[in-house]
Amino acid sequence: MQKIFSLEGKNAVVVGGAGGIGQAIAQGLAEAGAKVAIASRSVDSLQRAVLEIKEACGLEVKYYTVDAAVESSVEALVVESVKDFGKVDILVNAQGFNKKFNAEDFPMDSFKQMFDVNVIGVMMCCKHFGKHMIQNGYGKMVNLSSVRGRIATKGPGNAGYCGTKGALDMMTRQLASEFGKYNITVNAIGPTITETPMMTDILNSRGPNARKDLAESLPMKRMALPTDCVGPAIFLCSDASGFVTGNIIYPDGGLTAIG
Ligand SMILES: NC(=O)c1ccc[n+]([C@@H]2O[C@H](COP(=O)([O-])OP(=O)(O)OC[C@H]3O[C@@H](n4cnc5c(N)ncnc54)[C@H](OP(=O)(O)O)[C@@H]3O)[C@@H](O)[C@H]2O)c1
Questions:
Q1: Is 38 in the pocket of ligand 1 (CB under 6 A)?
Q2: Domain that holds residue 209
Q3: Whose CA is closest to atom 21 on ligand 1?
Q4: How far is the CA of 96 from the centre of ligand 1 (A)?
Q5: Which enzyme class (predicted)?
Q6: What percent of the chain has pLDDT over 90?
Q7: 192 falls within a domain
Q8: What is the pLDDT of residues 224-235, one digit of tens each?
Q9: For tag attachment on the chain, is the N or C end more exposed, with fewer CB atoms within 10 Å?
């Protein structure tokens, strides 16, 4: 029974795999049996993540530098990873960031940069790995969305981020529609606020009780951890989700149930 969750024989690329959630997912996929590569811009972060994964579970992961907001860089990532692995079966898009400004003051260059990485960067990875997966007749794509693709925040600041994640959700569904006939599934994971480098400054700026208050506001009464995304990711990358496509799983402690 557990075999349907096995990733033995599969090769995975996790873009944003040196980030809080991406690294947890990369380690989880490796522990489930996949050969894994992580990719992002900073070599230092990639090398740190490779070492931490090795220390945590004894498994080697590869790394590649990529700027997912630059199409030629994404194309080079596909060429290199396919050359090294032979084929890539799994793509996880865990890149992304949030810059908060009140809507009436939102600098449009920041707004556009968020779309460049959170939406267009994901599209370019799905497009170019998609071409390769179509040739192979198999593929699993998982995009890191957010509860903010579905519900807005009461406070200000999230017009850009919510916009990108809403766009990402619809793009995920459309890609699922187009790639289904090639045996490629495309799904998303929508976490709530999770303690990662992306959120540290935002949480610190909210005062000493921010984490406790957040935990209290959720039905599960604790804050999300990066590892909360690992089970959903293994499910969506394995044969256990063979007929699941165009879906979004929310590891959100129940936020979207009450939101
Ligand atoms: N943490 C949360 O509360 C939370 C909640 C809901 C959804 N999410 C989503 O989950 C995903 C991961 O978030 P996280 O919290 O793990 O963030 P994180 O720790 O800041 O990691 C983000 C990763 O994305 C990479 N990245 C950023 N821009 C890139 C680019 N242009 N090309 C390639 N890689 C790029 C970063 O590496 P480099 O800077 O070195 O390139 C980093 O490895 C994001 O899509 C985020 O929106 C996070």
A1: no
A2: 2-248
A3: 19
A4: 4
A5: oxidoreductase
A6: 96
A7: yes
A8: 999 999 999 999
A9: N
